[in-house]
Amino acid sequence: MRQPVNRRTGEGGFTLIETLVALALMGLVLSALANITAQWFPNWNRGLDRIQRSELISIALQRIADDLAAAEYVPANRAEKRPLFEGSELSVTFVRTALGPNAGLGLDVVRLSETTDQGGLVTARSRAPFRPLPLASSLSEQLHFGEPVLLLRAPFRLSFAYAGEDGAWKGNWRNSDQLPAKIRLTVRDAASERVLAISTVTPVHVQSPAGGDCSQPDGRCDGTPGAAQNGAPQSGAQQSGTPGNTPADSPQTGNASAGLGLR
Fold first, then answer.
1. How far is Cα 209 from Cα 45, in angstroms, rounded to an integer?
2. Contact status, residue 203 vs residue 69, Cβ threshold 8 Å
3. Maximum CA pair distance of the chain?
4. CB atoms within 10 A of CB 35
5. How far is the C-alpha of 224 from the C-alpha of 111, rounded, in Å?
């Protein structure tokens, strides 16, 4: 009598014990990966935040340095000979060419100073149109600054230092006959008092008032080029046509007229 054929002969598979062991190993691997990710991801976020803050501070310092480098030697009024410039450790006020998308031709009084907002201490830029100040008046009484722009936020603080041609650094610059030659921008972390390596020094390009150099022989400094030179040929032409000089129909006069026409 023929015995029944076992059709499962030769088929492979996992036993229940092998499956449980594989699941346990996979759980151990996933647990180890989760622990590594939990430790690495916050560090990665902190590093990314540090890079972004460094970029923002670098942009703010570049903006401040460009502003200070463009300071102009402009007195407060006609009677004042000293430039309008007041610098302290936490603020600086100066005059520069108007800057902005809606700014026209003219000058601005710019103030870079530390102030407070809802988030704490901040460094902001504000401006006011420049107008000659009355005599015996202070900046705080006559200037009303507006359009504040946030440049630096806590925990970072910005301080200024000023140096003249002698290179000696000072904490303030007031009532001086000259603008500072260099201004140092120091950024420190208020929590740790650590000075950041991104701190920099910017030069001030203008050091003296604009001079009125007049080199015209006739004393005219209205900017008209060749005023004296143009007057001389015209005078000669008028003299050549006066009575007693060479007749108008002579070849000599004709050549002179032709020469003036070619010019």
1. 51
2. yes
3. 162
4. 10
5. 38
